[in-house]
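An example makes the point: we print one protein in full, the chain in one-letter code, the fold tokenised, without further comment:
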Amino acid sequence: MQSEPTPESPAAASPLETPVSAAVPAPAVPAPAVPAPAVPAPAVQRPASTKMAPIKKLYERIATEISKLFVGQDELVLGTLTALFAGGHVLIESVPGLGKTLFVRTLGQALGCEFGRIQFTADLMPSDITGAPVYDMQKSEFRFRPGPVFTQLLLADEINRSPAKTHAALLEIMQEYRVTVDGTSHRVPRPFLVLATQNPLESEGTYNLPEAQLDRFMFKLRVDYPSLAQEAEILKMHSKQVDLNQRLRDEIQRITNPEQILQAMQMCGQVLVEESLVDYINNIVRATRTWPAFHIGASPRAGIALMQSARTLAAFSGRDYAVPDDVVEIALPALRHRVQLTAEAEIEGRSTDEELQSLIRGIEVPRD
């Protein structure tokens, strides 16, 4: 628990805060904004707390650094940072060429975390991800050689191109943060975030992700084409044939480290969630199981994801308590991959997001 600074000791600062070079002015970062499916009635406002001020400042500084090389895609930035500080993973659905690799590399540079990328293919084996024992000729024994999964930010590109046995290799890692080979467990470094991508347009040579693995992802984020102004900015920013590694070193400032991120994750877990808000989340999740347009509803893990992400969003806003707006803001990414439309709903052309919006609007919002 971080101590609050007092007027008598203005120099007291949170360990999460690191000095920022005065030579690098930080542009203003807008407040997190993701299109909300429904706007609940305003809850009773409480006095602002300074307990989560370091988390809010850290979020704003990370978003500022990312915006130096990565243009737009506010939902992707907010959803990924929320999943990171809530201890989850992200499934990204988008067409190629929208800068997902650039985003993860920029994020890793700003966070001071290791970055790894795996291109999933039809012949990718589980050992290609986790690593395998190799024979050491000098010591006449087998030793474990870690695979590319032993990193902190892992981009699993086109994950649906690999078979089910390779998908299954990620399950233990995503849930328990370890790899077991020959009966020996090997821990992956923390924080550990998997960002898996899949192309919604191509189905040839792909394998649908099993429901068990879809449920392991905290969010499913959809990345669309940038706006006219954003695309013009991308053309100006990335058409000068400057080495990306050099730009990452020169332009992106490292503002935190893995230890501070883990500390911030613990602080996010201390955000207060009232009983009425717990009931609100529970009612939303349970309503998906009886909604006429859904063949499969959300599991209890969806409620846990909503609780954790609501706490994190509240901390990003500088509050030590969550409100219904936090739940509504992140409900679609947390639920859209955990429900399935009925055949009749698909024939009628309904979408999962539209049905979830209608469902949430029908749930009574707590007002206390």
User: Anything to note?
Assistant: Residues 1-13, 18-30, 33-44 have pLDDT under 50 and may be disordered. The CA atoms of residues 37 and 357 lie 5 Å apart. Residues 300-316 form the longest helix (17 residues). The two ends are 26 Å apart (CA to CA).
